[in-house]
Amino acid sequence: QVQLRESGGGLVQPGGSLRLSCVASGSMARLYAMAWYRQAPEKQRELVANIARDGSTYYADSGKGRFTISRDVAKNTVYLQMNSLIPEDTAVYYCNSLSILYPWGQGTQVTVSS
Questions:
Q1: Could you tell me which of 19, 24, 15 has the C-alpha nearest to residue 7?
Q2: How many Å apart are CA 41 and CA 45, to the nearest integer?
Q3: Cβ atoms 105, 112 nearer than 8 A
Q4: What distance in Å separates the CA atoms of residue 23 and residue 62, rounded to the nearest whole number?
Q5: Long-range contacts made by residues 78-81, C-beta under 8 angstroms, separation at least 24?
Q6: Is the dihedral of CA 107, 20, 53, 49 positive or negative?
Q7: Are strands 108-112 and 10-12 parallel, antiparallel or unpaired?
Q8: Residue 2, pLDDT above cutoff 90
Q9: Are 76 and 23 in contact (CB under 8 A)?
Q10: Residue 27 pLDDT more than 80?
């Protein structure tokens, strides 16, 4: 059973940056495309970005040009570098496989506010 643990969130001012990390326990996690999702208060969870096994990436319009997803297969870790943060980025951020194969972790809270 793969477990996901997100970290790196926090309170940041508009224009600031954060780097989120997601560690997946279990070797199966390295076989799949991985993704970052987020859920803002009273909104549905949405896809932010994903990265395939071959390293190709996709970004939702909301983060295009500001976010960068990457992975370290050897460490079973997926990262999300977020720059030029805006208040609309405030949400709990989660990782999972692109097909949402694993139980959700607790997520990491990102709050963008002055």
A1: 19
A2: 10
A3: no
A4: 24
A5: 78/21, 78/22, 78/24, 78/34, 78/36, 78/51, 79/19, 79/20, 79/21, 79/22, 80/19, 80/20, 80/22, 80/36, 80/48, 80/49, 81/17, 81/19, 81/20
A6: positive
A7: parallel
A8: no
A9: yes
A10: no
pLDDT digits (tens, 9 = 90+) for 62-77: 999 999 999 998 888 9
Contact 91, 67 (CB under 8 A): no
Which residues does 26 contact at the CB level (< 8 Å), separation at least 6?
1, 2, 3, 76
Checking phi first, is residue 80 left (phi over 0); if not, alpha (psi -120 to 50) or beta?
beta
Task: Compute the C-alpha angle 83/94/110, nearest 5°.
Answer: 45
Q: Token pair for residue 63?
A: 């983060």
- Are 78 and 24 contacting, i.e. CB atoms less than 8 angstroms apart? yes
Instruction: Report how far residue 35's alpha carbon sits from residue 19's, in angstroms, rounded to the nearest whole number.
Output: 14
Is 47 in contact with 37 (CB distance < 8 Å)?
A: yes
